[in-house]
Structures are given as structure tokens and as C-alpha cells.
Amino acid sequence: xxxxxxxxxxxxxxxxxxxxxxxxxxxxxxxxxxxxxxxxxxxxxxxxxxxxxxxxxxxxxxxxxxxxxxxxxxxxxxxxxxxxxxxxxxxxxxxxxxxxxxxxxxxxxxxxxxxxxxxxxxxxxxxxxxxxxxxxxxxxxxxxxxxxxxxxxxxxxxxxxxxxxxxxxxxxxxxxxxxxxxxxxxxxxxxxxxxxxxxxxxxxxxxxxxxxxxxxxxxxxxxxxxxxxxxxxxxxxxxxxxxxxxxxxxxxxxxxxxxxxxxxxxxxxxxxxxxxxx
Length: 278
Prior knowledge:
Layout: H1 3-43, E1 49-60, E2 67-73, E3 76-81, E4 88-93, E5 99-104, E6 111-117, E7 120-125, E8 130-135, E9 141-146, E10 154-156, E11 161-164, E12 169-173, E13 180-185, E14 187-188, E15 191-192, E16 196-202, E17 205-210, E18 215-219, E19 226-231, E20 248-254, E21 259-264, E22 269-277
Parallel strand pairs: 1-19
Antiparallel strand pairs: 1-22, 2-3, 3-4, 4-5, 6-7, 7-8, 8-9, 10-11, 11-12, 12-13, 14-15, 16-17, 17-18, 18-19, 20-21, 21-22
């Protein structure tokens, strides 16, 4: 057989085989990309709304309080402050900022978030993987509970305790057995939102301070999607003593007035606000 003809035949065979393989590879890669994209596509329902606080009233706040947790109940604020040797649980007069009731925490614990469930207050600690349960009225400790992560923020949907640990995850705990009922990953669009800190559950949404920022994200508790973001950095300009203020931290909701109370670590003021689009 002619050698030249054989060489040409082999070259053509190699050419068509390469095209066929490349076509298969491309089809396979497209399918993999589509499969990978599906979860993100269904999870990404971020509306893109940016909200800002509208200040209604400004109150004094203890500027030495390293605020870790905050909630409102029947005309008063309840606050958890952190740092080793300085941690406490407090009942605070909103109008004056005066501490009406206080329980100091042992110096081996760095207190974190608090929430009320039933007639009890649940308080987290940062590194000890241990939380404390107090009688709501007396602040007497009635129990303890444990969790496998760091403790940052805590709130409740009136069914579970919802806890943040500084990651992009929120974990739902049974308030009696402290077994894990559910865990969600929080995402803004296709990006995980890390450093979720102090929490507040309001009208079916979870509000979370993002540590190291002056942002609050509003989270869908089912999907984990961030539905809007609140930029509270403008509040700094209204502080009596902005030079010592650290990051925003502390969200409490008043269902009677439908307003929020916001403050931060070493903030000299507490702000009563509503939110509006920028």
C-alpha cells in the first residue's frame, strides 16, 4: 500500500478522534458546571437592598460596656457585657442608661450573647463552650448547657435557641435537651457571610451584626439567604464619645413601638431607630 496514503489516513483519523473527544469533554464540563451552579442559583435570592437607620431617639449608654448581647422586655433592656474579669448580665434603664440590676460573671469566663426564652435568660460564653441559664427576675443561675463551638450570639424563634459561632453558620438548638435541630449556612448572593455575631429574631427574620464591620445582615432563617443589609456606620457621627467606640454590636427589638435599639462595644449611646432604604 502507498506509504503516503497510509500517513494521510492516520492523520485524518487522529483529527476526527480529537474533535469527538473534545466535544465529549466540553459536554461533560458543561454538565458539571450546571450541576454545581444549581444550588447557588436556588440559594441566591438576595434582593440587593441596602438599608440605613433613621434615628428616632438617642439615649445614654455605659461607654465602659463591652456589649455582647442585647434584648428588650417590658420597658427595659437586658445586656450582656464581655471581656475576662469584666463580664456581666445587666438590666438597664433605657432612658438613663443606668444599670438597675447586675450579675457579675466569674473572671474565667468571657460572656457573649443573651436571649430570653420563657422565664429564663440564656447567656453564652466565648471559649468555654458553656452557657448559663438564669431566672429572668432574680438573675439567679438555675442551670448550664454546653455546645461544641465558640459562643458568639444567641436569639430565639420561640421554638429553638439560635446560636452563632463566628462562622457563616447558625445552629438551632432544642432549649430543653440542647440537641441540634438544624444548621443553616448564611450567604449573600453566592458568597458566605462570616463573623456572624449578635443576633435578634424579628418577624420571621434573623438580624445579625457582622463582627469587624458596622453592618447588620437580615437573614432568611430557612434558606440562609441575606435578604437585605443595614449600614449603621452613620450612627458613629452621633456618639457623644466616638473616639473610644469599637464595632457596632447589640440589636434589640421593641414589638410595642416596632422600633430597634442599637449600640456597640464601648459606645456612649443607645439609638432607637427604624430602617429605610438608602
